[in-house]
Design goal:
With 445 residues, the protein is α/β, with parallel strands linked by helices. The protein contains 16 helices and 9 strands. The radius of gyration is 25 Å and the shape is globular.
C-alpha cells in the first residue's frame, strides 16, 4: 500500500561524528569585500573547516596579495582556485565542490558574512539526533544594506530577512527562494543524489539547487540570525563592480525566472499532459484567493475611513497630537544630524501610516498618530505591498526630507513612469517599490 508520509532517517544521514565543512567562496575583482569574507570564516568558533576560494576570472595578483595577509591564520585550511576567464557563479561553486572531501559544505560568497557561531550551530544541529532527519539546515539572517564610499564599506541599515520561514516547504520554495546561500549548510552526500549546481543558469542557481534538495529530502531551520546577507544599494560608479546580483540584476532575475519556470512546467506537461488540468486548478484557486484578499483589503480601507470619521472629535486626539508633536520633533532632530537609513525608514513609515488611517498630514506635521489604527505594527515591507494597491486612492505628499529631484534623476525608469502617470511622484514609487528593490533613498541634506 502506498504511504503518503513515510519519514525515516536515510542511512547516509546517520552521524559519524564528522565535523568538517567545505566553505566555498566565489569572488571576482572585489578586494574590499573579499577581506571581510575571509575574516568572517576565520572568526568562526567551529574551526574544522577548509576554505576553497574560487577566483572566477578576476585579477589573480590581487587575490594572491589579499590571501597572503592571512597565511598564518589559515595555515593549511585554504585552497585557492584561479579561473583564467570567468565561468559563472555556479561553475565556481562546482570547482570548489570538486576538490572538497568534507562532510558538509556551505557557499560563503565574497560579499556576505557569518556571525561567529554560525558553523557551530549549524553543524551541531546536523550532528544531533533531530538533525538526522535533514539533509541541510538554514539559519535566519540579517539583510545589511551598505554602500561603497571613498574606498570603504558604509553600513546604512540592518533588518531581518523578511522571507525567512521556519518550515522549509517545497511548495513554498517553488514560489520563492526562502534561504540565501549564506544561510545554508548542506550534507556533502547530497551531491550524489541531486547533482552539482546548474552551470547553465547565470542567476538563480541557488534556488534551483534548493528545489532539487527539497525534492529528495528536508531542510531544517534555526530561527536565529546567524548569517548576514549584504546588499549594496548605491547607484554610484564606484560601487558598480561591488553590486549584489539581486539588487543590481532584478530584470535579469525576472527573465531567467520565467525561462526556468517555463522549463519546469514544460517538463511536467511532456511527462503527462493531464498536468495541465492540475496547473489550471491551482491557478483558479490562486486567483480566487487573491480576489478574497483584495475584497478584504477594500473592506479594511472602508473600515479605517469610517473609524476616522467616527473618532475625529474624540478627546483622545489632543493627547495624540501632543505625543506626535514630540515624535515629529525627534525625527526632525534625527534628520538634522543626517539620520541613518533605518531612522529615515521609520519616518516614512509614520508618514505613510498617517495617510492609511484616513488623514492627510500637513507638509511638516501629521495630525494623527498612527498608533490609534490596527496598522501600527506593520513595518515598511508590508506597508509597501499594501500601498502598491492603494496609492492611487491616496494623496500622499512628498515627505520634506525626501529629495524628489535627486531620486528621479538617479532612476530614469522611475522618472519615465512618473511622466506617464504610473506614479504621482518618485516618492510614491520609492514607498511602493524602491525600498523593496534596494534603491537608495534620496534625502535632502
Amino acid at each position: 500500500m502506498t504511504q503518503f508520509f513515510d519519514r525515516h532517517p536515510a542511512s547516509h544521514y546517520r552521524t559519524t561524528g564528522e565535523q568538517s565543512v567545505a566553505v566555498i567562496t566565489r569572488t571576482k575583482d572585489r578586494p574590499l569585500l573579499l577581506s571581510r569574507a575571509l575574516e568572517s570564516v576565520l572568526n568562526q568558533t567551529h574551526t574544522d573547516w577548509h576554505l576553497f576560494l574560487v577566483n572566477d576570472g578576476g585579477d589573480r595578483t590581487q587575490v594572491d596579495e589579499i590571501v597572503q595577509r592571512y597565511t598564518t591564520a589559515f595555515k593549511d585550511r585554504l585552497t585557492v582556485i584561479h579561473h583564467e576567464t570567468s565561468k559563472g557563479m555556479e561553475a565556481a561553486s562546482n570547482a570548489g565542490l570538486a576538490q572538497s572531501k568534507q562532510a558538509y559544505f556551505s557557499i560563503h560568497d565574497d560579499d556576505d558574512s557569518w556571525q561567529p557561531e554560525f558553523l557551530e550551530r549549524a553543524v551541531g544541529f546536523l550532528n544531533s539526533k533531530p538533525g538526522h532527519f535533514y539533509s541541510a539546515v538554514a539559519t535566519n539572517c540579517h539583510v545589511i544594506k551598505e554602500d561603497i564610499r571613498d574606498g570603504g564599506v558604509i553600513e546604512l541599515a540592518r533588518e531581518p530577512w523578511e522571507f525567512f520561514s521556519e518550515n522549509a516547504d517545497l511548495g513554498d520554495m517553488i514560489f520563492t527562494n526562502r534561504y540565501p546561500p549564506i544561510s545554508l549548510v548542506f550534507r556533502s552526500s547530497l551531491i550524489e543524489q541531486v547533482g552539482t549546481y546548474n552551470e547553465l543558469l547565470p542567476v538563480l542557481g541557488d534556488w534551483d539547487f534548493n528545489l532539487r534538495v527539497l525534492s529528495v529530502s528536508d531542510i531544517a531551520t534555526i530561527d536565529e540570525q546567524l548569517a548576514n546577507y549584504h546588499h549594496r544599494v548605491s547607484r554610484s560608479a564606484e560601487s558598480d563592480v561591488y553590486g549584489n546580483t539581486v539588487t543590481e540584476g532584478n530584470k535579469r532575475h525576472a527573465h531567467f525566472s520565467t525561462l526556468y519556470t517555463n522549463h519546469l512546467v514544460r517538463q511536467l506537461i511532456q511527462q503527462d499532459s493531464s498536468h495541465i488540468g492540475l496547473i489550471r486548478a491551482l491557478q483558479n484557486h490562486t486567483q480566487s484567493r487573491a480576489q478574497q484578499l483584495h475584497k478584504h483589503l477594500d473592506n479594511m480601507w472602508d473600515h479605517f475611513d469610517d473609524r476616522h470619521e467616527a473618532s475625529a472629535t474624540s478627546d483622545e486626539i489632543k493627547d495624540v497630537h501632543k505625543h506626535l508633536d514630540t515624535m515629529w520633533d525627534h525625527f526632525n532632530g534625527l534628520h538634522q544630524s543626517r539620520a541613518a537609513s533605518e531612522e529615515l525608514q521609520e519616518i516614512d513609515r509614520v508618514w505613510l501610516l498617517c495617510h492609511l488611517v484616513g488623514r492627510r498630514p500637513a507638509l511638516n506635521k501629521p495630525p494623527l498618530h498612527p498608533a490609534k489604527s490596527d496598522l501600527s505594527d506593520l513595518q515598511m515591507p508590508s506597508l509597501a505591498r499594501m500601498l502598491q494597491k492603494l496609492h492611487r486612492k491616496l494623496n500622499i505628499k512628498v515627505h520634506p526630507t525626501f529629495d524628489e529631484t535627486a531620486y528621479l534623476s538617479g532612476n530614469e525608469d522611475v522618472r519615465d513612469a512618473v511622466e506617464k502617470g504610473a506614479f504621482a511622484s518618485g516618492y510614491i514609487h520609492y514607498l511602493c517599490f524602491g525600498l523593496l528593490e534596494g534603491r537608495d533613498r534620496a534625502s535632502k541634506r
